[in-house]
Structure prediction request, 570 residues.
Amino acid sequence: MNMFLHELRENRRPMIIWTFSLVAVTVLFFSMYPSIEKDGDQFIKVLQNYPEGVLKALGVQINSITSLLGFYCYFFLYIMLCGAIQAMNLGTGILSKEVSGKTAEFILTKPVTRVRIMISKLFAVLAILVITNLVFVAVSYMMAKAVAVEDFDVRTFFLISAANLFVQLIFAALGFFVSALFTKIRSVLPVSLGTVFAFFIISMFGSAIGDEASRYFTPFKYVDMSYIMKHSAYEPLYLDMGAALIAVAVGAGCLLFVKKDIHTV
Amino acid sequence: MNVIELNQLTKRYGQSRGIEDITFSVKEGEIFGFIGPNGAGKSTTLRTLLSIIYPTSGSASIFGKDVVKYGPEIKKHIGYLPSEVFYYDKMKVKDLLHYSASFYKKDCKKRIRELAERMDLDLNKRIDDLSYGNRKKVGIVQGLLHEPKLIILDEPTGGLDPLMQQTFFELLKEENQKGATILFSSHILSEVQKMCDRVAIIKEGKLITVEKISTLQERNHKKIRIETKVPVDAGLFALDGVTKVESEEGNRISFLYSGDINLIMRRLAEVQLANLWVDEPDLEEIFLHYYEKEDVQGEHVPART
Prediction:
């Protein structure tokens, strides 16, 4: 418990900043919604001038974009992008900053197993992401309520919102695995930004050319917004795949870290 | 009873050298020094004992338990001070120490206050505002706050001023009297001499010898340099226990001497001296002595008196 609380405290500041960023994005987009809703036809006309590939890559569904949930789905892509960066930073940093900050010697000479250390850290990651999302979803919901012209399906709204946490958990697990594999990562940001953008580009490219297979290779595509809109549910296959990916990354990361020599000098 | 036992402990890092076949043991209640030049493998050995890194072969045990298997259990009773102290920069000293204490099922508040007072450490400062020496103090308090049975220190005195060093050594002596075993590494012989009962000497990853400090001191070489007014024959100093005689123009002579100090002083008094230096030899020279012994296989045995 002491290590868990310590991690929360150590990561408090980035958590606040990221939560604030996500909230800012959602507030900004939702406050644009009334004008888009009002001039919906014109907006659609403008969009129709765009090549289809571009629209797909940007996640624009023309027939639903002027509805509240459709618009939410559209800008949720950017929420997920931010969220993924936060999660990957957190997941990668949680181990590697002990090594690069040379505090690993402190924690490793305490009477705790390495597994305990990692479990505490992983729970801290989970807690931070959950807190971030609770705040984000609460603000999003309030904004949606405030700008909505007609009623929207609340269940679908929350399913869309929770997709961020799901994608974040996958990226956090990936980050954790990477940091256990390469314990000597000096700077977390290039690693996490690189990975997240690589997956983001795969996802955009996959959408643009409409390649189904590419969905397997990018966590961003494990949640399909149009599917959620249509069925008010997640796709079981991708849900399972995401869960499996998290389990494998965390498990392998733990195994690696337990066996590893930690060099801080 | 042996608190620490190393059994052919070997740690290799790929091609580069780690430690090779280290075997020695530290008895309960002992203050044990571990000396060698930089890069000899002192830290590697200590870090293996603490299972921060794992041995390639061989084994080590502390309190009779294998260090890899029972690491967390053993560490309840170990206090460790790393050579370079790094902590969570944004924490206050107080918070860090309480965090450290939270790993042991003990109330350490009073002890933290006492130690901080003695080490003259400000508990309310942030870690990243501290100087190197003050960080070291945090490390010391952190290592001693749970009253460990075994204290492991890696080059403990770096950064501490002489006065603080003395306080620190006093603290260690007190802990020792209360029953704590102490293992500490150093490359400064005088530091080790002051504190330790026995020392292990390590060089290039290999254990050279384990000696009682008293034996080491008997064999202690003095490095003597003289400057004379008129050139003298260096052969004058061919006493038992004199080695490495070097003469420069006949009036600057230097040599190593081990043996009865009175004998050499009498001989020196026969010469018209312009100047005289008597130095403690540095570690290298001590090692030299051990290497010579190994090479010549007993032919050159330093005089003992």
